[in-house]
Amino acid sequence: MSTPATARAYGTEPARPVAARARGLTKAYGSGETTVLALDSVDVDIMRGAFTAVMGPSGSGKSTLMHCLAGLDTVSAGQVWLGDTEITGLRDRELTRLRRDRIGFMFQSFNLLPTLTAAENITLPMDIAGRTPDGAWVDRVIDTLGLRDRLGHRPAQLSGGQQQRVACARALASRPELIFTDEPTGNLDSRAGAEVLAFLREAVDSLEQTVVMVTHDPGAAGHADLVLFLGDGRIVDRMERPTAEAVLERMRLFSGARPSPGGAPDDVLRKS
Amino acid sequence: MLKATLRGFLAHKGRLLLSALAVVLSVAFVAGSLIFSDTVARTFDRLFASTSADVTVSPKKQIDTALPSGETPTVPAALAAQLARVDGVAAARIDAAVSNITIIDAHDKAVGPTTGGPTIATNWYVTQRSPVKLTSGHEPRGPHEALLDKDTADKKKVRIGDTLTVLAGPGSFKVDVVGIATFTTTNPGAALVFLDTPTAQSRLLGTADAATSISVDAAPGVGDDVLKQRIADRLGGRYELRTAAEQATSDAAQLGGFLDVIKYLMLGFAGIAVLVGIFLIVNTFSMLIAQRTRELGLLRALGADRGQVRRSVLLEALLLGLAGSTLGLAAGVGLAVGLIALMSLFGMNLSAAEMVFNWPTPVAAYAVGVGVTFVSAYLPARRAAKVSPMAALVDAEVAGSGRPLRVRAVVGALLGAAGAAALAGCASSTKASTASSLLGLGLVFTLIATVVAGPLLVRPVIRVLGGAFPAVFGPVGRMSQRNALRNPRRTGATASALMVGIALVTGLSVASSSMSKSFDQQIDRVLGADFVIQNANFQPFPQEITERIRATQGVGTVVRQRFAPVRITLPDGRKADTAASGYDQRLDDVAHLTYAGGGTAQALAADGLAMDKTYAHDHDVRIGDSLPVLFSSGQQARLNVAALTDMNQGSGGFATEGALFMGLPTLERYVPGGQDAAVYVNAAGGTPADRLRAALKTTLNSYPQVQVRDQSDYKKLVHDQIAVLLYLVYALLGLAIVIAVLGVVNTLALSVVERTREIGLLRAIGLSRVQLRRMIRLESVVIAVFGALLGLALGMVWGVAVQQVLALQGLTAFAVPWSTIVAVAVGSAVVGLVAALLPALRASRMNVLAAIAHE
């Protein structure tokens, strides 16, 4: 993997502008003998207007990558940019503002404040910022996600799928540069999960949003434009216009032949 | 199961810390007050037992009232010789001791305790029982020599050779200090002056033929009781006879009153701490159980039965109680040491080394500590036992408590109605005793009702209170308001702790400001004199002061007031012990009295008596009745009821029971040798009040025990006395607030832990630390203000009810201390801010990622 080929960033596609990028992104936990590298000098570009999935087995560093790109976690080495802003080295206050104004989040569960209604949850980031939501846009998001008749409900009165749709709407409502979502379908049944993925797809296609999704579900990754495969803290492969079957196949290969430094099987690196 | 419980207890010990603190405070006050009063009791038991004579012969005391006539009851001095001849008497000595004197130094400064202890002058003789011994100088000999006790001499820097003036009842006299006597036992806080026996008799009692008591020593082999019986056989029932043991008990009882005040005050503190602590502990356990629902569900799923779960929670409470009680006991010892040190400031030298630690102290400490914790944890434990095994499998619902509040509504409404009925009954009652018991009942019922129904009030009140939050503070305000609303039980219980303290202080300040206002009105209405000269407590002062006042330039009318304890037999058969006043003839010039029958002239005529109209009516007394009156001197008289006053002051306030008064000559006839308790002075024509005041001040310079007061000074004196009561209340409130703040901190801290993921989410989507802190602060403020409002409302109701009871005693005015109430409301918001400091800091320091991942 330390061949010259990996010096070029995965996901690079010069035709489209970059929403976020990382160079030499390294994240280490612990120190000395017990150091664990969660991310090992990762270079990545996230294209604007695309739906990017990040896949990998547990412990591959996919969530850490997302957290570092989103400014939720600090990096040990390397640089991260959101648009033209370098976010490595920003203080907590600036990071908070950046997350609030330029990034949308959707987690696996517990996305909503139980005390606020669906509508209040959706506009929360803008309320916190003291900005007036763009009414027409929010309406469009709400209608796209089919939440019109659920706006006055509290999270406890919504189903899991509905809750994730509200979370999705919240992530979209402020029209952020980038939406990060971590296993958004992890807690949902397959029908509700498919619905949420369809909405994310819709957000990219019709609402021209940029979405980065961390998942270990090949079916979910099949909805993306591009899948990045992570293993042991490095990006080991990419797949454009994936299908669930192709992703599943790729994952099988991974689990059958776990990459070892310097000795990854050829087919792992083969482009699809 | 035991292991799981112990692990659980240790794992949550941080979260139990504040509850433990509440237990420690309650136990510390209980233990401290017990240790202190035991120590004091033993010290004085020893002192009195070792200093009392085998048998003491003293004048019979017939009537006990707080207002003495100022005359010193005596026995004939010749009695000593008579007693010496009784078989079995080794020695009989004359005692000539008075405690109502004042001593001043060359600069007219009082030499003696400034903290309420008596200044005692007595005759000097040395026996084995003397509490003092001569340590320097020589014994007093002759009319101009005296000893002073060492404590007083040191404190007031008096040395041998200094000249002091003794202001005694019969007149003041100068003495030279010729020696210093040192206490060999505990000094109970008095100043002592010793004279030789003839000087003490003539100067203090006014005659060499009198003694205040005779101390009799038994011959070897003669028991005190036997000797007492022999003396009783010889003297008959004319005198009071006490053995050493009886005398010690009686002395201790007199001192006991003062010590009881301290004891009850401390127990009051303990009570408040317990009451408020209960809310805190209940809340803590409820929250811990809510947070551990899944864990408890898992235990249940693994086969633990309900009893085991309940016992495991109760065992945790037991451990908390034991730990808290042990620490509290230690803190109580510290508190007792502090109190003992405080007492030495008051001149009472107790030795902390001799601290008494009786078995009831630890028993009471552990009973309170463990009992309170156990009782408080019982309901949460029952709730824990009801957790279903399914809870382990589904996501724990921590957001809100969905259980309906219907039972609370019903119980609260019933208790509230009962309390309101009792208070209404108290307000409309015309008998003070009925009104008081209804008041007590009403207070308890309304308090419980408010505590029970508190959670029901959370929604409506906080909606209104926090209604402006979203507008003022934006989404942060909205979230705070919703957070305060999300678990009404928790918010209610947290606020209740604050409510109790604030309700108490509001009720008492309404009552006390009503009292102040009533007294002001009475002073305005009744007091007609330019100046009143008296000491602070209506204690009598020597006659020469009155004479000096009369001789002062610019003094016009002078009316003296004296008290006499009397036992009056009323037509309905009741015998009332009270104090009657005696006034000079020109009473109308210095007071505005209104009468329902008769007038000042009739009342002050020979053997005349004035009585309050209502009192007379209650006891079937009519004008012209002749009532038997027993005076403290032992003289029996029949006085004619010649006037009925209509002062609308019932039997309370300034007035003594029945508001009896008579002419000073009448009083003097039955109680000779009394002292004036107050002198009312009007300026002579043409003398401005200012000049008279200056002249009086000069005159009275060498009599530091009395002060010159005009109407406004007099009001201030009364206000100050009421204020002393208020300060105690404020101290109680302070403690209640400290614990209530602990409760708010506790609730917020546990809420922050509970909402870790929520906070992580908020931070992830862009809530800044400042905003997060503000959110928690606002929640805290809204809870605190909610508690304060409940407390103010409840306290107002209490205040009105108390005022109604006071009105029955003539204190009819009603006043609301608005400044106090505004201060309480504002203060509660500050309390909220302070309480939120740590939880907010903790929340804002949370790691965003760890918080999101938190289970």
From TrEMBL, chain B:
Belongs to the ABC-4 integral membrane protein family. It comes from the Bacteria. Residues 17-232, 491-698 form the MacB-like periplasmic core domain. It holds the Pfam family FtsX. This is Membrane protein. Keywords: Cell membrane, Membrane, Transmembrane, Transmembrane helix. It is a multi-pass membrane protein. Residues 269-389, 732-848 form the ABC3 transporter permease C-terminal domain. The chain crosses the membrane at residues 264-290, 317-343, 363-381, 409-430, 436-458, 492-511, 724-753, 781-801, 821-841. It is found in: Cell membrane.
